[in-house]
Amino acid sequence: MSQITDSDTLTTAAVEETAASSVAGIDQTAGDFKYDVKYDFDAGSGLSERTVRYISDVKKEDQWIRDFRLNALRTFLARPLPTHWATRDLENINFDKIRYYLSQGTKPKRTWDEVPADIKMTFERLGVPEQERRFLAGVEAQFDSEAAYSNIKDAVSKQGVIFLNSSEALRTHPEIFRRWFGKVIPTGDNKFSALNSAVFSGGSFIYVPPGVKVLHPLQAYFRINAENFGQFERTLIIVDEGSELTYMEGCTAPKFSTSTLHSAVVELVALKGAKIQYITVQNWAPNVYNLVTKRGLAHEEAEIKWIDCNIGSRLTMKYPGVVLKGRKSRGEVISIALANDGQHQDTGAKMVHAADETTSSIVAKSISVGQGRSTYRGLVHIPRHLKGCKNNTECDALLINTNSRTDTYPAITVRGQDHAVQHEASVSKVSDEMIFYMQSRGLTEAQAMSLAVNGFVNDLVSQFPMEYSVELKRLIDLEMEGSVG
Amino acid sequence: MSQLIIQDLKVSIGDKPVVKGLSLTVNQGEVHAIMGPNGTGKSTLAKAIAGHPDYAITGGDVLLDGQSVLAMQPDERARAGLFLAFQYPSEVPGVTIANFVRAALQARLGESADLDATSYYKKLYEKMDLLKIDRKFTSRAVNEGFSGGEKKRCEILQMAMLEPKFSMMDETDSGLDIDALRIVADGVNKLRTGQLGIVLITHYQRLLNYIVPDFVHVMYDGRIVRSGNKDLAVELEARGYAWVKKELAAASA
C-alpha cells in the first residue's frame, strides 16, 4: 500500500458538505451493496500537481502525457464552475474530499480465471450473466480505476481490432492513441473535461482497422466501489474507413452517504464511411455527480449514433455530440432520462454541422417523477457557408406527479438558405383516466404507472440491444415503485 | 356458482347523488341489459362498481360471491373477477395490446411466477381467431388512433383474455355503425358460454337484437324502475322513455 503523505493535500481545509445527501423515497437496491476491496494504490484525497504526478508515476507514463495532465490541471483550476448557465448544485462538489486515483494494480487481467473472487462476486450481484460474456465479442469491465477484466473474443482480435483499457493502450499503441487523443474534446472544452484530462484512469481504447465490421457489440461494465471516490475514465474509439462498431457501457453504483463524482470523457472518431453506435445505460446512486463529456467526429459519409439513457445520480450533465466534419456525414442522438426525487437530469445533445449535406437527428425523452427535475439542452449549429444540411429535433417530456419539473433549452442556430430544420417538443402527464383504465384490467397503480412510462419511451427502447432494453425496463419498474400512493 | 349482488347502491359525484338506491342480482352466465335515457346514472353505476376514484359510494354494497368489493382498489376488483368494458377507453401510447394484456395477466400471477409466453400467445391467437380479429391488431398501441369499432373490439378481446366472472359493458354500441355493431355483438355472443355474467348498458334496443338479454331493466333517475325479459326492450323501443316517465309520475302522484 503506497500513499501520498503530502500534508497540504490531506489537510486542506474541507469546506463543509452542505448537500443533503440522503434522498428520501428512492429504491436503488440494484446498486445498494459494497464489498471491502483492498487497494494497492491510492492517491489519497484532494487534487494537486502531486496527485497528478503520482498517477503518472504509478502508470509509468511518458513525458508527453505527464505534460498533458499537468497542463490540464492548470486549466481545471483556472476555470470557474459553469454556474452562469448550469445548476448551482455544482458548488456542492467538494473537490478536496475526492479521491482521484485508486487501483488494485496496474496490470489489467486478461482471462476470467485471473479475476479475483471478490470482484467476481460483485459482478454476480450486478447480474452480469456468465453466458452473456460468451455471446459478447469482448468484455472490458472496469472496476474502480483499472480494468479488472478484459477479454476479447478471438474472432475480434483476429480481425485486427484493438480493445484495451486506455492506460494500457497508451503504453502499447502510443502512435494511434496520441494521434487522436484530446482531438475531439480538447482539454479546455469545459472545466470537467479538463479535470478528466488531468487525472483520467481506465476507460476503453478501441481501434477498428479499415473495412472491418465488428458483428457483436463490445461491452464494458463500470462500477464505483469506494466512498468519496471519483471515476475519471477516458475512452477513445477510432473506427477506420468503412468499418462498423457498436459499443455498450452500463453502470450501477452502490449507495453512499457522501457525494461521489464521476467525470468521464469519451471521444469517438469515425473515419470515411465508418459507423459507430455508442450505447449507454446507467443507474447511478442518488449521490453521484455524473458530469460527462461525450463527442464524436464524423468524417465524410461517416455515421455516429449515441444512444444514451440516464437513470439515477444526483446530477447528470451530459450532452453527447457529433461534429459533422465530412460531407454527407450523419449524426444521431437518442436520449432517455428519468429524474426521481432529489435528482436532476440535465441532458441533451450537440450537433455541429461543419460540411455540406450533413444530417443530424436528436430525439430526447425525459421522465420526471416526484420532485425530480429533467432539463433538455440542445445545440444545433449550421453555419451560413454550408449547403443542404438537415436537422430534426424532437424532445418530449413526461411528468408523473404534479410537483415534477421539466425545462427545455433548445438552441438551434441555422444560417444560410439551403437547409431543412425541424423542431418539435411536447410535455405530457400520465392522466388519472389512463391509470384507472389500466387498474381496471388488474394492474396495480405502480404497475400501471410503470407501463405508461415504458410505453412513453418504447419507440426509443426498441432501438436498444435486447439485453439492454430488458434491463432498462427493469430499472424503470424499480424507479416507479415509490412514485405513487 | 358466481354471483354479483348490487344492494341498494347509492353513488354521488361530488355532492350530487346520481345512483339513488339500486339493487340487482346477476348470476353466472346471465345477461342483464340496463336501459335508460341519458344522464340517468347508467355509466356512473358501472364505473362506481369498477372502483373509479371520482365516484363516491354513499350507501349500499356490491358483493362478488358474497364478498364486498367496496374496500378494494380498482385493480383488486379486476383481479377478483370484475371487468369494465369502457364506453370511452383510454389510449395507452407506446404499449401494444399484446403487451398490455400480458401485463394484466402477469399481474394476476404475482411476482412469484412468470407468464409462459408461448401459451400466452397461443391463447391470444385463439381468442383473436374466435373474435375474427386480424393478427396485426395486437401489435398496435392500445386504442391509439383506433376507430370506434376498433376500440370496442379491443375491449372485447381484453375481456376474452382476462376471463372475468362478471363484465359491465358500458354503451358498447355507442359510436358504431351497423356493421361494426354486428361484429362486436358476434364477439360478445361467442363469450356467452355460461361462465360469464354480463351487465349490458345501452341507450338503444338495437344492440339487444344482436345480444339477446336474459333480463332487461329500465333505469331512470338513479334507480331501476322496471324489470322484465327481452320483450320489455321491444316495448320500450316502441313507446319511448316518455312512457316510463309518465308511468312514474302517475305512480308517485
Folded structure, characterized:
The complex is a heterodimer of chains A (485) and B (253). Chain A has 485 residues and is an alpha/beta fold. Chain A has helices at residues 7-11, 49-58, 63-78, 117-126, 130-135, 154-158, 166-172, 174-180, 191-199, 432-439, 445-461, 466-480, and strands at residues 2-3, 41-42, 102-103, 138-143, 146-152, 162-165, 204-208, 218-222, 234-239, 244-252, 260-262, 265-270, 275-284, 288-298, 303-312, 315-318, 321-324, 330-339, 344-353, 359-368, 373-382, 390-399, 405-414, 420-429. Chain A has 2 domains: 2-15 and 23-318, no CATH class; 444-485, no CATH class. Chain A is built from 12 helices and 24 strands. In chain A, helix 1 links the parallel strand 1 and strand 2 (41-42). The model of chain A is unreliable at 1-33, 105-110, 128-150, 222-229 and 252-258 (pLDDT under 50). The model of chain B has no long low-confidence stretch (mean pLDDT 93). Chain B has helices at residues 42-50, 74-80, 97-109, 117-130, 148-162, 178-190, 206-210, 230-239, 241-252; strands at 3-13, 16-27, 31-35, 55-64, 67-68, 82-85, 92-96, 141-142, 166-170, 197-202, 215-220, 223-228. Chain B is built from 9 helices and 12 strands. Chain B has one domain (3-92, 164-252): Rossmann fold (3-Layer(aba) Sandwich), CATH 3.40.50.300. The N and C termini of chain B lie far apart (42 Å). In chain B, strand 1 and strand 2 (16-27) form a beta hairpin. By secondary structure, chain B is of the alpha/beta class. At the A-B interface, helix 10 and helix 11 of A face helix 2, strand 7 and helix 3 of B.
